[in-house]
Amino acid sequence: MKKLTTFATAAALVVASMTAGVASPWVVGNAVTKEECSACHMAYAPGFLPKRSWRAIMSNLTDHFGEDASLGDAARQEITDYMVRLAPREIRGVSSIAVPLRITELPWYQREHGARARAYAQSHPNIGTLSNCTGCHRGAERGLFDDD
Asked: Strand pairing partners for 33?
């Protein structure tokens, strides 16, 4: 019964914080970030990568995974500040000096998805790539990643 009460309390706190406008590292709550990043792909939440990774990604938008995603200085700075403010300092299983740039290469992603996700993405053209979280997780943009 104690576990159920603890879970219910935690769930209530999450819902309360989301409805009260408290920033979450698992949902993109910044309008500029959502608008600019969603123009080409799902706007990834800050919690997926450590601070140093977001700094690195945002510092080289002229070569953003093979594309030119350049932004004006004000938009770039606002997105960088937002992502870094909510990102974790470290990601479990990642060296403190590593600068991971792809969520799909992180240990937790590999553990959760592995070869199963790669095979599924290849057999479902509507998904396309492993970086298309919304292809499998319809609630991804709301921070919901249960198996849809």
From this structure: none
Q: What is the mean pLDDT of each run of 10 residues along the chain (148 residues)?
A: 46 48 89 96 95 98 96 98 98 95 91 82 82 87 79
Tokens of residue 55, six digits: 């700094």
- The CA-CA-CA angle for residues 101, 105, 106, to 5°, reads 90
Q: Domain boundary at 90, 110, 134, which?
A: 90
Same domain, 112 and 74: no
Q: Quick check: 26 and 36 in contact, CB under 8 A? A: no
Domain that holds residue 49: 29-90
Packing angle, helices 73-86 and 51-59, rounded to 10? 170
Map residue 22 onto helix, strand or coil: coil
**DSSP secondary structure string, 82-97?**
HHHHHS-S--TTS-TT
